[in-house]
Write a structure and sequence with these properties.
Length: 511
């Protein structure tokens, strides 16, 4: 290697080394492109250089920096070009990803003339993250100017440029992430500040209400002579809250229950009247008995006398027909009596104040009990569709769940204007069972759906609902370690999903 070549290599190494040092302080792509064009490529014996960036969206190369003819002023490109991928020498490099050296541009049909025609051209791809990101293109007015030494130098520059572009992209993404993170932190601090303000306000309200409550409690303690009695009364009131909701449900059912009981009582009364009439019609049998028996002993009577006595006995109807009617009358009366007993028993079981403990229950049977209690409320408004799956027994407060189911069924019936469908479905998945109650009623607005479990919230008129039913239902399901979810479309209907765990879990204390 000649002394000139050695000096040239040393000069290239010095330029590349300085380039590596200068890269440390570069933070933007534009700055990087101009550094390469003006302070690197131009110092490596390249008289005319243009750096292209690939636009993936446009599928073309865009001139971003230059040195030489296209850069008459400090940071300006005249006649800025956009070259489609695959067109010209630079477009071919962008398409193939391989470097190209053109010895005589005048013989190249795909050579694109820019400011003026040059005779030699060299173009290398800028590649990072396995993707072609741009092209470094250099030209010279002499033929056969560029050789392997130029290719190595330009390839090295392109590789260093690609590495730095990766770093800039990462830094840019990190900066964006940091900005977003800072925005989130600022927002969190703002929310935290607002929460703190709300907390202070809440504490003040709680303190005020606590003070008011304490005054009330003190007054109550004075009236009842002891704090223990007041606490006992409070516990009783909590139990009565559940009972109140029960009685509210019974109140809704009262007319229907009266009707349910009145029907069997009415036909029992009618049957008893029929029995009395039959007995009256069978009165001549007593005369026959007296004719033939005296205190259980068979009487001896002259046949003529018997005939005379028999002629006096007259039946309005045939005794055989009367005896045939009696078993049917008695049977129907017994059925009516059983129905009354069942209704009264179910109401008594549902409404009584108890200290029920959790025990194994079958959900399908509890649903049947709720349906039976609400029969009269339901049968005039809805067609009941039952789709029950065989379910295992679960530990629960059965009476409380009947209260929930009855409340939901009554609400579903009241949501139907004329007549519609109520579908009750039970399913099991893994360690959980689901009760789905769907109606074709008027549905709920988003606002009503959001507030429906709030205490004392009701859409019913004054005197019709207390607003406690759905709140207590929610608490009962919560105490069973379950969940309740509502789906509703205004004008189309509502579906309520209750999910309860299967297996032994610690149930919450009853409220």
């Amino acid at each position: 290697m000649s002394e000139i070549d050695n000096n040239h290599c040393e000069q290239q190494l010095e330029v590349l080394s300085q380039f590596a040092v200068n890269l440390v302080n570069v933070t933007e792509k534009e700055q990087l492109y101009w550094l390469v064009a003006k302070d690197v490529v131009s110092k490596l014996s390249f008289v005319d250089c243009v750096i292209y960036e690939l636009s993936v969206e446009k599928q073309c190369l865009i001139q971003k920096a230059a040195s030489g003819i296209k850069n008459p002023y400090q940071y300006e490109i005249i006649n800025r070009l956009e070259i489609p991928v695959g067109k010209g020498v630079t477009g071919s490099v962008a398409l193939s990803g391989r470097s190209i050296i053109v010895s005589d541009a005048s013989q190249e049909s795909n050579y694109i003339v820019d400011i003026e025609s040059n005779l030699s051209e060299i173009a290398v791809p800028i590649i990072y993250e396995g993707q072609i990101r741009g092209v470094i293109d250099c030209e010279d007015p002499h033929k056969d100017f560029f050789g392997q030494q130029h290719l190595r130098a330009l390839t090295t520059v392109a590789a260093m440029l690609g590495s730095k572009l990766i770093q800039i992209d990462i830094n840019t993404k990190l900066a964006v992430s940091n900005i977003e993170l800072q925005e989130k932190i600022d927002y969190s601090k703002k929310v935290e500040k607002e929460l703190e303000a709300h907390k202070v306000l809440l504490e003040q309200k709680v303190e005020q209400r606590t003070s008011d409550l304490q005054a009330s409690i003190d007054e109550l303690v004075t009236e009842t002579h002891s704090k223990l009695e007041a606490e006992a009364e409070l516990r009783d009131n909590q139990e009565m809250m559940h009972q109140s909701a029960k009685m509210a449900s019974i109140g809704v059912l009262a007319a229907g229950v009266a009707h349910e009981i009145n029907n069997p009582i009415a036909f029992i009364k009618s049957n008893l009247q029929s029995v009395r009439e039959i007995l009256e019609d069978l009165a001549p049998l007593r005369e026959l008995y007296r004719l033939y028996f005296d205190r259980g002993e068979l009487r001896t009577i002259d046949i003529a006398v018997q005939q005379k006595e028999l002629e006096k006995i007259q039946f309005d109807d045939e005794p055989e027909e009367l005896f045939e009617d009696l078993p049917e009358i008695i049977s129907s009366s017994l059925d009516g009596t059983s129905r009354v007993i069942q209704i009264v028993s179910e109401l008594k079981e549902f409404s009584h104040l108890d200290k029920e403990t959790p025990k194994p229950e079958n959900i399908n049977e509890l649903l049947d009990k709720a349906i039976s209690l609400g029969t009269n409320e339901l049968k005039y408004k809805a067609n009941l569709k039952l789709n029950f799956t065989d379910l295992p027994e679960i530990e629960c407060w059965g009476d409380k769940l009947v209260q929930v189911f009855l409340n939901l069924l009554i609400n579903a019936a009241q949501a139907i204007d004329k007549r519609g469908d109520i579908t009750i479905k039970t399913t099991r998945f893994d360690n959980e069972l689901t009760i789905e109650i769907t109606d074709t009623g008027k549905g709920m607005s988003a606002e009503t759906k959001e507030k429906m479990f709030d205490p004392f919230f009701t859409t019913k008129s004054v005197g019709v609902g207390t607003g406690l039913g759905m709140h207590i239902s929610y608490k009962i399901i919560e105490n069973h370690q379950g969940r309740i979810r509502v789906e509703s479309v205004l004008g189309k209907g509502t579906s309520i999903f209750i999910k309860l765990p299967i297996g032994k879990k610690r149930l919450a204390e009853k409220n």
